[in-house]
Amino acid sequence: LDDVQGLLSEIDANGQALCRGRDAARTTLIAKARSLIAALETPVETITWIAWAEVGKTHLAETAGPVFQRLPTFFAETQYASPSDNTAGPFQFGQDTKLTVWQWRSERPQLEQAFNNHMAGYSQGRPSWMDEGFYPVNDRLVQGMKPGKEEVAIVDVGGNVGYDLQELIRKYPNLPGRLVLQDRPDVIAKVVDTGEGIEATSYDFFTEQPVKGMSLFPQAPHLPQCLLILGARAYYMHSILHDWPNPDCGRILHQIAGAMEKGYSKLLINENIVPDLGADWKITSLDWFMMALAASAERTETEWIELLRSAGLKVVGIWTMDSAVESLIEAVLEEDDRKVA
Question: How many CB atoms lie within 10 A of CB 178?
Fold first, then answer.
């Protein structure tokens, strides 16, 4: 930002020169304007407009290019219905495959690595829910946590190679409890160093959530439910559910809800919330990408509430900042919304 004032002065001077008929000032004005954009833009804003305007220069070219090229034909052949099946949507039509986009990409290591690099820069320069003044981590998570080094603080479900948990440790180095990172085996295999205090484990989020605490009597595993300690303090998902249509989201959410402890566990969802009017172009462009690649969508607040309710969960709070694209949704088991602090 140190260069902004000088660039504004040069843009003003060259703009006035151009208006006075100095045609040579035009190219200088363009160059200074581009420099100003570069000084002000966050990495994710750059990624987004490049993905749309210069898709051939990004890893999205091979993945999304053929899909968007054939999108008009797909809609014509499906009577312009909104896609809802991620095994028979625009991606499968455009790429001539029966695989989901995630399966297809996992078979292409170069694209998978490019996607991981994209995710590494995705949140840079933007407010994070872990920033002071965004989500009250100490008040909502730390307070009320069970004591003991074996207690799980957060399970990052589908957390890639651990970017979010690493950020959490940097910003809350004294956060109590264990941090568990979960993702597919092929993703976890790429984890080199998650940082101290992060446990990386392989997990398919369509299956039973393994982090359910432990029995008070481990020698007797078949004791009644009342004698079991269930659930982490928080289960966390960042940009996971927008990858899947509603039926699949329901399956994912039911697995988490089944592991949550009544009156204690929370579900944190870090996702876009699309406003009913005046949605930012970055959200609407991402909505198009998710529709084309995964037959899914970005969701409005009402859609999030209804989706979570269908899995027996209730939204108890939504946190955001004016300049943030993604919000943080906190949900609890529906019958316990008045009990969880």
Answer: 18
- What does the DSSP 8-state code read for residue 215? B
- Report pLDDT for 294: 96
Write down the catalytic residue from 10, 59, 261, 298.
298
What is the pLDDT of the chain when averaged over all its residues? 86
Average pLDDT (71-79) is: 96
Active site residue 242: yes
Active site includes 222? no
What digits encode the pLDDT tens for the residues 225-277?
444 456 899 999 999 999 999 999 999 999 999 999 999 999 999 999 998 88
Q: Which of 10, 271, 326, 330 is catalytic?
A: 271
Q: How many CA atoms lie less than 13 Å away from 69 in the CB half-sphere?
A: 12
Kind plus residue range of the DSSP H or E element containing 50 = helix 43-53
Single-letter amino acid code for the residue at 268: L
The CA distance from 253 to 205, in Å, is: 9
Query: In 3-state terms, what secondary structure has residue 223?
Result: coil
Catalytic residue (one of 242, 261, 326, 330): 242
Q: What is the mean pLDDT of residues 139-145?
A: 95
Q: Residue 131 above 60 pLDDT?
A: yes
**In one letter, which amino acid is 99?**
L
The one-letter amino acid code at 80 reads: Y
CA atoms within 13 A on the CB side of 323: 11
Separation of alpha carbons 244 and 252, rounded Å: 10
Give the count of beta carbons closer than 10 Å to the beta carbon of residue 43: 15
Q: Identify whether 298 is a catalytic site residue.
A: yes
